[in-house]
User: Fold these one by one.
Assistant:
Number 1:
Amino acid sequence: MIHVIAVITAKPGQRAAVLEAFQANVPAVLAEDGCIEYQAVVDAKGLPPSKGSIGEDTFMVVEKWASLAALQAHGASAHMQAYAAKTKDMLASRMIHVLEPA
């Protein structure tokens, strides 16, 4: 199994628009062969900001894939290319961590 933690930082004030595009793409991703989990997460409400907070402009994507090949096919899919094109001007940075169980 492959785990992915993607840290996506939108330009100031753009996170809601990026998340809207992300959520619109989720059904297509979940339908992909080998996709086990794919969801966006943000700081939990009700907690004070801390060194571990990701902030108002950032969200993380938590993903699980059956194999590296499934993840690679995901990255090359037409719907991910369209999502990237739609959001590219709204993003400040993107860091993708591809992990496997220890």
Number 2:
Amino acid sequence: MAGLEVLYCSARAGISCPQDALVCGIHWELIQHGYRCLGAGEQPGPEERKSELLPAGWEANKEVYTLRYKSTDDARELLLKAIVVEDSMILNVMDRASQKVTDVTLAVADYINPEHLNDFHKVYKNMEELRTRIVSGIIAPLGVPTEKAKKESQAEKKDPDSPLDYNPRGIPPRHPAGARAPSWPSPLNPFAVGGQDLDPLGGRSGGMIVDPLRSGFPQPGIDPSTGLPSGLPPGAVPPGARFDPFGPLGAGRAGPDPDHLPPPGYDDMFM
């Protein structure tokens, strides 16, 4: 935890047992989450002010450590009591505004090396686990100060490792024109396999045979004057009226290539 080393060195003169070192680590975790220490004891003293340091006399009682904290936004005030019971420490924290209370029990030996109280780099162990216990057992139940939550929210927005689908401007993604999911035959009908190749004019999608009438190119509509030497005058056929053309369909409009899929040996003069 960044800053814990400086705190530990400043409080080193008062650290004489593993419980002192553990309280120091717990104190710094509360500081990291937007709280500042007001002082020791349940009652406020003269000229108190919020500080990141441990107050004078914080280690006077080795059986019950009592510290008071206030959030940086002044919205919450916590009363922390760390009670030593044999080899464990019970953290009892109360939010004085809401009277909400939470408890966490820690085994001192799980986080402190008692033989290295003089060496900060060796005195702590399993610090990530300790942080998780403090956050889940104290910070989360009582609520994160608003300033701390706001900073974390802003940090998430600036995080370059945010998910790839994050779109800060809310612009919908662009897709190529006409792109759509392929239409697959129903897996429940085994006879649908190859249906497009067996019936290329049946209106199904897919298949290897290309239908020139549905190749994607625009096709002209039916001309009623097909087969006449000259076209019908304008208005001779009302719009939308049913009308049989005079000549065969296809005359006068582009059709498929005569060489489209020719039969085998079509150019053999002896066939």
Number 3:
Amino acid sequence: MNDIVVYKERWSEMRNRTFFGDKIYIHNEFNQQVKSQYNSEMLTPIKAIKGMPLIIKQRIKAADDLYNRAVSKIRQPIEAMFSWLIEKTDIQRASKVSSTKGLMVHAFGKLTATFLNYVLNP
């Protein structure tokens, strides 16, 4: 399932939250609705607008770069942790899982085994 679908179904109704996502989460109309209805916000890197005049691009480039760096700085440790989990657990290989309960057992079993191994064998 695509990340944006999970966000829309499970996370977007949480109140008073700030989320940090990649460019897939840029859905201005939906994000404005979440902001007004739940006081929650999705911060994503700024995507270049096609056809924008060069002079305007040059004027806003520094601000956009600074903002994108700030969002990336927050997202980077999270991405690194997920990368570590995928590398250590092979958690994404769940082809024989056929139910939600089975997926939960698979995911939490892999996570538990990995963290126990990490704690017991530093």
